[in-house]
Amino acid sequence: MREDASQILKKYWGHDSFRGSQASIIDATLQKQDVLALLPTGGGKSVCYQVPTLLQEGICIVVSPLIALIEDQVNALKRKDIRALGLTGGLSFDEVLTLLDNCLYGNYRFLYLSPERLQQELVREKIKGMPVNLIAIDEAHCISQWGHDFRPAYLDCAILRELHPEAPIMALTATATERVARDIVENLGLNHPRVFKDSFLRKNISYTVFWEEDKRYRLAILCKATQKSGIIYVRSRRMTQELAGLLNKKGLKSHYYHGGMTSSEKSDKLNDWLHDKVQFMVATNAFGMGVDKPDVGLVVHYQIPDNLENYFQESGRAGRDGKAAQAILLTNKADEARLKEQFLSVLPSITYLKLVYRKLNNYFQISYGGGEHESYPFHFDSFCEVYDFQYMLTYNALRILDQQSVISLSQEFSRHTTVKLEASKKDLFNYMEVNRAVAEIIQVVLRTYGGVFDFETRINPVLIGKKTGKSEQLIMDSLKKMEADGLLSLHIQDRDMKITFLLPREDDLVINRFAKIVKAHHRLKAQNLQKMLDYLENDKVCRSKQLLHYFGQELKDDCRSCDVCKRKYNTFSLPSDLTERILKQLRESGSTSRELVASLPDDEEMILENLREMLEDGSISLNHKNEYILNI
């Protein structure tokens, strides 16, 4: 079997040999054994289920969390002339039926679908009739309530075992603690699974934490220093636009990418980056999962991630070609305080959860004991305004109710409205003088939303209406008129948001049933956040050792490439003439460290170390302008 598998690998992927546990995983699958594969990011997880599928008759069902990931995998297989099909979003009933019939009768080898698709009776019935030889659950940590990216719909993956009890199941993930791994086995009903856990060590990645007050300056320096592609991760959509604009102004071709963009916008930007039309992608964590670009040389986290799982997975998108790459986290003390405030303050307490649930029932006038399986259109913004609820806190409360099967809630807001002022400030004020009816609306927008002159900014028409005493419809009509007059650009994306009550109303009793679980989740999130902060602060232990220890693995020797190891082992030697070149420049005029770094060809770290030594020996000093000057 191994020889046949090797031939398949060579024929379709061009590789002469398997990596890590790939061959053993394939052997176990061909022996009809269930498998839990814990492989590092970039460890070739897809090969583990694609090769054994091609060695057998029948089709492989692949469950994957992201539409972009499904499309990427399907297109990659098609380029290899392997018949694959994906059930992506926006398909009508007839289109889904046609595609599933193609799988049944068209000799397809792979069917990719999201876990939500398994909730459709049509999909289940069609899969039941397919000749399934393998079931692959990618990003399997999503099935665990203790995982960092829990998706309730992933629990439906267990139905595949009922539909095809004879087919082995392969669960794959790159980020799973021991607790999450146990959850995966239990929730999928894996039968005495073979567990393969390759080392998560990425020897070619150098992990660095930069403590930097001026992060924009540092980001530009880092990007200018790399010749390869890069990803910059941030936590907000606006920040993607701001930093991409900054890099472009400095001549570094960049795109921004976030979850609020249309599918075509995402596709166009991704293709530009994949084909090196732009060098950098500034993105939220909506970007990256499954993106097959091996030559990423730099991954920067501009803001602190919520947990080490996300950080490790996103950093692992660097250096998939095996060549040296950098994973850098830019931070400062203000970031640390801000993260604690923003992240922990939006975790709803049990008391708040009960309040939201009670008001939700009141909002739809559901009587005690009633409401089960009743569905309603839901305007989230209006709901928050009626009860004066804080938006993010309330949205997280609704997500918890959804996860605990109290309600079923679509995950998109009902209306997404963005504006950008196109007129100059002078023209804007002239317009307000002539159009008194909309002047107050413009003033509220300016006071409420910073950056509306520079970026497409999401606004809340309900909130604007509340502040001006006008109806939401009047606000929208006024915005449309201003767009027609050339004052602003307006984008309105209406989305159906429906809420279904899955249980009869019992107020506090409903919440009490899972209150302990919610409290445990909040504690876990707080602990994970603290572990992320501990990683930043720990400058005594090798970064790779810290990361592997978190995932239950131990590294015997230091990596010698991270910032901790570089300081510990002093792996660089200063050029013998560097001191003289610094003195030569300072004889002409005093210079800041930035000016010296910009003017000298040497590595920044070498220049700064040399300056520290020169300060210690008294040959230079710092003046009141923070410039280095000669001591005469």
Top keywords for this entry?
46% helix; Arc Repressor Mutant, subunit A; six-stranded parallel sheet; Rossmann fold; single chain
Written overview of the protein:
By secondary structure, the protein is of the alpha/beta class. It has 5 domains: 2-197, 3-Layer(aba) Sandwich (Rossmann fold); 205-332, Rossmann fold, CATH 3.40.50; 345-413 and 497-525, Arc Repressor Mutant, subunit A (Orthogonal Bundle); 415-494; 578-630, Orthogonal Bundle (Arc Repressor Mutant, subunit A). Helix content is 46%, strand content 16%. The strands form 5 sheets. It has a 7-stranded parallel β-sheet, sandwiched between helices. Strands 8-13-12-9-11-10 form a 6-stranded parallel β-sheet, sandwiched between helices. Helix 7 (159-163) links the parallel strand 5 and strand 6. Helix 2 runs parallel beside helix 3. The termini are far apart. The model has no long low-confidence stretch (mean pLDDT 88).
Short characterization:
The chain has 632 residues and is of the alpha/beta class. It has 27 helices and 21 strands.
In DSSP terms (H or I, runs of 4 or more residues), the helix count works out at 27
The CATH C-level class name of the largest domain: Alpha Beta
Q: Any low-confidence stretches, pLDDT <50, length ≥5?
A: none
- Quick one: biggest sheet? 7 strands, parallel
Q: Numbering strands along the chain, what is their spatial order in the largest sheet?
A: 3-4-2-5-6-1-7
Helix % is 40-55%
CATH names the topology of the largest domain as Rossmann fold
Beta percentage is 15-25%
Tell me the Rg in angstroms.
28 Å
Tally of discrete structural domains: 5
Number of strands: 21
**What is the 3D form?**
globular
CATH 4th-level superfamily of the largest domain = P-loop containing nucleotide triphosphate hydrolases
